[in-house]
Amino acid sequence: MKTTAILILAAGEASRMGRIKQNLPYLETTLLGHAITQAKQTQAQHVYCVLGAQEEAIKAEIKQEVSFIINEAWEEGLGASIAAGVKALRSKKYNQILIMLGDQPLITAAYLNKLIDKAKEQPETCVASGYKNKKGVPAIFPESYFDALEKLSGDQGAKALLNSDRSVIALNAEDLLQDIDTPEDYEHLLKK
Questions:
Q1: Strands (E), the chain
Q2: What pTM was computed for the model?
Q3: For a Cys staple, 22 with which of 5, 32, 73, 74, CB 3.0–4.6 Å?
Q4: Nearest to 102, CA basis, from 179, 187, 37, 8
Q5: What is the phi/psi pair of residue 167, to 5°?
Q6: Nearest-5° angle of CA 16, CA 107, CA 190?
Q7: Are the CB atoms for 57 and 20 separated by under 8 Å?
Q8: How far apart are CA 117 and CA 51, in angstroms?
């Protein structure tokens, strides 16, 4: 059976937000807490969360059971967080890793399960979220991608990897991929 781990990226310092974005109230929890709840409601075997900046303050707000991976090089950006997360999970023998962001609150467990189901149909192919003719995360990466993910650095994340490989399958996520980066984004979210 294919085993899937979900890796939630939440290590940044949210400089554009001006406060700890991961801890902003959202629904019955926080932005990050909501992402963890959605991930834990999927068919994935385990959920991990990559933290860096403000790690203790964020951990203090998390009420769910979740395993943390600390990215000491969080200032390097998203790529460094992905690399740290994948490196930590390599020894656990997962067949695939679903990478998602902690600041995309419209992503649901149902959507994440669609990605997982599609990955079951195409186990050697990467399944990404499609929007505006681009591919991004949330995305599921099979084991064959782990080496490339572990080599990521800087703030580029996996976008270049997802968009350079023509075999990557993209599910339409146009309405779901709203990042919460600024106070205006957050205000807009709360009005929905």
A1: 4-9, 25-26, 29-30, 46-51, 67-70, 96-101, 127-131, 134-142, 169-172
A2: 0.95
A3: 32
A4: 8
A5: -80, -5
A6: 55
A7: yes
A8: 28
